[in-house]
Amino acid sequence: MHFDPSTTSPDTSATNDRESQTRAVVQQLRIVYRAMQEHSRWVEKQCGVTAAQLWALWELAARPGLRVSELSQALSLHQSTTSNLLDKLEKKGLVARRRGGPDQRVVQIDLTREGTEIVARAPRPAQGAISAALAGLPAAELAGLERGLAELIGCMEGADHAAALRPMMDDIQAAE
């Protein structure tokens, strides 16, 4: 039997295009995901800290004495997640917390000598490969991507919106 494309209905063609686009997007998301995994593994091998921890160290190197809330904002993480990340960095001897000023409840964070040494030899970009790539997109493309991903998440059942404030690679590494 010979296939004649001129007899294909417009509905079938549209369905095939949509399925093809869906596969292409899934494959592109896999590429992004794998690139993030590889970057995180490489950072940990080079520095002995996770990509999220390295980003925190970079932020502290750039702005010594940050408060936890300020660091949380810079990393786009929930404050409790940032506190847990800092606990790990403090146990490794890479950061020190200090209370200062008139309000002793305010905790500021500084790098230790060891933390400064890690930053000095750390790979770039500090915020990770995906953030650097996104920063390089034209504003209109970035806005379109944001809208598209928001719509995708809105269509997903069981989407964990709180996950937006947790470092993804740390979740992956914990599961491995």
Percent range for helical residues? 55-70%
- Main β sheet profile: 3 strands, antiparallel
CATH second-level architecture: Orthogonal Bundle
* Extended strand count: 3
β-sheet strand percentage: 5-15%
CATH homologous superfamily label: Winged helix-like DNA-binding domain superfamily/Winged helix DNA-binding domain
From the N-terminal CA to the C-terminal CA, the straight-line distance is 50 Å
Name the helix and strand elements from N-terminus to C-terminus, one letter apiece: HHEHHEEHHHH
Q: Which strand order does the major sheet show?
A: 1-3-2
- The Cα radius of gyration reads 22 Å
Average pLDDT for all residues = 83
CATH fold topology? Arc Repressor Mutant, subunit A
Poorly predicted ranges: 171-176
What multimeric state do the chains show?
single chain
Shape: elongated
Q: Decide which structural class fits the backbone.
A: mainly alpha
CATH class: Mainly Alpha
Q: Count the helices. How many?
A: 8
Integer count of domains:
1
